[in-house]
């Protein structure tokens, strides 16, 4: 979103490019599909609606449609965008008048209402998502001259509370429906049999049956009529249409028989009431199961502590985590959870980072090391400086990525959505044919009616709509617990299809922290002088090898000479002037291009030992070699073997010397490698790998550096190893918080497990409808049994998805 323009407390302009809106009132996949169609008809709008997450993701490509127009379109379709709440800590208020002025400013924002409390220094607000965002509200507070800090994860907590309140209300309605329906159950001893509705229909007087069934039909069941009306008004049909049609047919036929005192005909009040009651029970169970699909994410949210021990005016005080700012100093005692991201200033300890990385072994921390919010301190004490607070912590980034993935659609889901879109009209057509066929050939209208009702209530488009998103939600949540952040559902689906995996060397197979291990000066040069000359140019580079040379030089020579005219040649080296002399530093090939020949035998010996070579030339003459070693990660060989055991062809790409590449490949068990690959060429290699297979094999790419970003973007599925460079994380489809290639194997395992659940769910949904609808049309299913089966079908799909919670990352 772009910045809001606030003048005198009023919003003058706000351009929104992306919206994530909560949507209430959806009952099945047809509802989600109808909202998508309505929104996608609006100019400049691309929308995706997730039934399981109850969210709509909307991208606005122009100014023709406003956020207010999006919200209005959703509400006009018969659904709702529930208001959200936001609680902000307000700083800078000096009197009650400040609070009153800020309250007026905030209440003038579109869709915002609330109060500002001077005593508690809190603003409690309600706002309409889409019309305004928490960030825009905070900017309005800043423009008014005050400070604003979000008090925890209030928005998410509020959504959870709203869901709980809705569940309690639905449970109350179900209990009332059950109490009213229970006496009617005595009217149908055959409700668990097949067919047969002829016995004991007047145990309870019909007028009593009418009194019991009417509130169930029109008060408890009003939600089905509202949903059906909204769907039909929008030009589509959903599950509510089926339930409303089926129960209304049974109820109004029974009403006709009762009012006209036709004792020769049966009444079916118990069927209509029990169908509604059983469907409500199914919806309750479904809602409770759906809430558990985000359990992994909720567990992450609960890890961050509420309070932090902070240095203020020379004293240690406990303050709310939300009041911390970058630069604040906080203290970790043994056993404390880290409140925000930071850097250790002093002390030594070991932190348990399993909640973020999935790695159970504690990680040693000392001065200069990073610590992350929600990780747990060991037995030592640490003094840290806050670097990332609020939405800027790694934990917050994980939560954003997981929520983004949970709201996205896998390609397989779109095919199910297409079927769900035509499902209800087809079922209504089958019910009409059933009614006409039975009435025509049997002459028994009652039996024809009951069979048509059974067809209507057994059909379940919800199972189709929930099959994919519930599995994706559980899968991405489990991935987050194991240190795998999946950017979108498509990546989760495609990961299992990877057959070729290209991996970067530095930082992926190796530790990414190279150090100088050999210094070989030429005649006339000393070790210290050679290192100082090379480091004078390399200190301008952020490359890990350059940093290793600079660190070694400073440890030996202390102060480095100044360099001028420094120019980098990407992927090759750097040149410049040091103390009036022209210096070239880079690969032996870089020097060879300038006519300087390094000692070939020496180069070969160092490269064969797995060293990366840095050659130095001064005034056109060879000055010496620096060998830099980057240790192979302890688990790289086992990870490569694990990937190969899964049938993957693993290929290493590196810009390093061929001999160095060969040595690393031998240590890790990789049989294919390509050396001397420049950063700009890695993407071309990845594309060529796909072309070699004729497009039949999906290609994955794993890397961690900035120079890997183009290759990551070119791959079908890309993995950023470790927290890595921001640009690599942005380009990757799956970010692996842990610095291990095992994470790629885990991601493929998770993808296979998730896709297996999706296929099972879709099979259950299809086979249920394929078998159930014909049985109902053939008169072999009682409508109440059909209603119970329909209610349970969605529950079974969600419950099957929840079995993914048993998945664990393995080695």
Describe the protein in words:
This protein is α+β, with helices and mostly antiparallel strands. Among the domains are: 5-151, Alpha-Beta Plaits; 305-392, Distorted Sandwich (Calcium-transporting ATPase, cytoplasmic transduction domain A); 487-510 and 632-749, HAD superfamily/HAD-like (Rossmann fold), CATH 3.40.50; 515-629, Calcium-transporting ATPase, cytoplasmic domain N (3-Layer(aba) Sandwich). Helices cover 49% and strands 20% of the residues. It is built from 28 helices and 31 strands. A 7-stranded mixed beta sheet has the order 19-31-30-29-20-27-28, with helices on both faces. A 6-stranded antiparallel beta sheet has the order 21-26-25-24-23-22. α26 (726-731) links the parallel β30 (717-721) and β31. The protein is elongated. It starts with a strand and ends in a 9-residue tail after the last helix. Mean pLDDT is 81; it is low at 1-14 and 189-201.
Features:
seven-stranded mixed β-sheet, 49% helix, elongated, Alpha-Beta Plaits, 811 residues, Calcium-transporting ATPase, cytoplasmic transduction domain A, alpha+beta, Rossmann fold, 28 helices, six-stranded antiparallel β-sheet, single chain
């Amino acid at each position: 979103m772009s910045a809001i323009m606030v003048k005198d407390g009023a919003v003058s302009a706000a351009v929104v490019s992306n919206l994530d809106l909560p949507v209430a009132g959806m009952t099945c996949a047809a509802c989600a599909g109808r909202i998508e169609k309505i929104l996608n008809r609006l100019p400049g709008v691309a929308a995706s609606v997730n039934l399981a997450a109850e969210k709509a993701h909307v991208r606005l490509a122009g100014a023709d449609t406003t956020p207010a127009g999006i919200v209005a379109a959703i509400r006009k379709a018969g659904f709702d965008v529930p208001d959200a709440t936001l609680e902000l800590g307000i700083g800078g208020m000096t009197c009650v008048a400040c609070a009153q002025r800020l309250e007026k400013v905030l209440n003038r924002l579109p869709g915002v209402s609330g109060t500002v409390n001077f005593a508690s220094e809190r603003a409690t607000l309600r706002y309409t998502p889409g019309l305004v965002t928490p960030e825009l509200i905070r900017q309005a507070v800043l423009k008014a001259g005050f400070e604003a800090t979000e008090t925890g994860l209030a928005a998410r907590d509020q959504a959870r509370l709203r869901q709980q309140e809705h569940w309690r209300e639905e449970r109350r309605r179900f209990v009332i429906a059950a109490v009213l329906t229970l006496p009617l159950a005595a009217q149908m001893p055959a409700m668990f049999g097949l067919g047969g509705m002829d016995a004991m229909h007047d145990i309870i007087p019909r007028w009593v049956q009418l009194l019991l069934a009417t509130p169930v039909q029109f008060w408890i069941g009003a939600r089905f009529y509202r949903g059906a009306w909204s769907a039909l008004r929008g030009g589509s049909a959903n599950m509510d249409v089926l339930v409303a049609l089926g129960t209304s047919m049974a109820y109004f036929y029974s009403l006709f028989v009762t009012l006209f005192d036709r004792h020769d005909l049966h009444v079916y009040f118990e069927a209509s009431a029990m169908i509604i009651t059983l469907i409500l029970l199914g919806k309750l169970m479904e809602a409770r199961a759906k809430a558990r699909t985000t359990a992994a994410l909720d567990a992450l949210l609960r890890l961050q502590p509420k309070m932090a021990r902070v240095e203020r005016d020379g004293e240690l005080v406990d303050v709310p985590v939300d009041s911390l700012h970058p630069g604040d100093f906080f203290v970790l005692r043994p056993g404390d959870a880290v409140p925000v991201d930071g850097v250790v200033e002093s002390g030594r300890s070991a932190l348990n980072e399993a909640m973020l990385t999935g790695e159970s072994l504690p990680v040693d921390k000392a001065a200069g090391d990073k610590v992350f919010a929600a990780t747990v301190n060991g037995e030592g004490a640490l003094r840290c400086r806050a670097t990332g607070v609020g939405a800027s912590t790694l934990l917050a980034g994980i939560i954003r990525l997981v929520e983004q993935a949970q709201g996205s659609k896998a390609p397989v889901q779109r095919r199910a959505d297409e079927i769900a879109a035509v499902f209800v009209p087809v079922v209504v057509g089958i019910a009409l044919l059933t009614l006409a066929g039975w009435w025509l050939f049997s002459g028994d209208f009652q039996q024809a009616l009951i069979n048509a009702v059974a067809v209507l209530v057994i059909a379940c488009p919800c199972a189709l709509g929930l099959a994919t998103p519930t599995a994706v939600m559980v899968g991405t949540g489990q991935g987050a617990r194991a240190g795998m952040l999946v950017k979108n559902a498509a990546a989760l689906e495609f990961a299992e299809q990877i057959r070729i995996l290209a991996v970067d060397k530095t930082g992926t197979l190796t530790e990414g922290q190279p150090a100088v291990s050999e210094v070989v000066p030429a005649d006339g040069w000393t070790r210290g002088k050679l290192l100082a000359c090379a480091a004078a140019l390399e200190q301008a580079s952020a490359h890990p090898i350059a940093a290793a040379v600079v660190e070694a030089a400073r440890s030996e020579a202390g102060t480095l000479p100044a360099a001028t005219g420094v120019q980098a040649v990407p992927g090759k080296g750097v040149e410049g002037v040091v103390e009036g002399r022209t210096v070239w530093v880079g690969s032996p090939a870089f020097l060879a291009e300038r006519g300087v020949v390094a000692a070939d035998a020496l180069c070969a010996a160092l490269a064969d030992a797995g060293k990366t070579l840095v050659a130095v030339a001064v005034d056109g003459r060879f000055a010496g070699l620096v060998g830099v070693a980057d240790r192979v990660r302890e688990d790289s060989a086992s990870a490569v073997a694990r990937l190969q055991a899964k049938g993957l062809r693993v290929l290493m790409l590196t810009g390093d010397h061929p001999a160095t590449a060969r040595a690393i490949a031998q240590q890790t068990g990789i049989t294919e490698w390509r050396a001397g690959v420049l950063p700009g060429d890695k993407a071309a290699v990845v594309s060529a790998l796909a072309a070699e297979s004729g497009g039949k094999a999906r290609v994955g790419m794993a890397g961690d550096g900035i120079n890997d970003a183009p290759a990551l973007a070119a791959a079908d599925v890309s993995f950023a190893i470790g927290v890595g460079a921001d640009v690599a994380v942005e380009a990757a489809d799956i970010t692996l918080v842990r610095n291990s290639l095992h994470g790629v194997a885990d991601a493929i395992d998770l993808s296979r497990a998730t896709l297996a659940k999706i296929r099972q769910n879709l099979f259950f949904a299809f086979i249920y409808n394929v078998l159930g609808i014909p049985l109902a049309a053939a008169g072999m299913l009682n409508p109440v049994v059909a209603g119970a089966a329909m209610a349970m079908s969605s529950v079974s799909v969600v419950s099957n998805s929840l079995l993914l919670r048993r998945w664990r990352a393995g080695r």
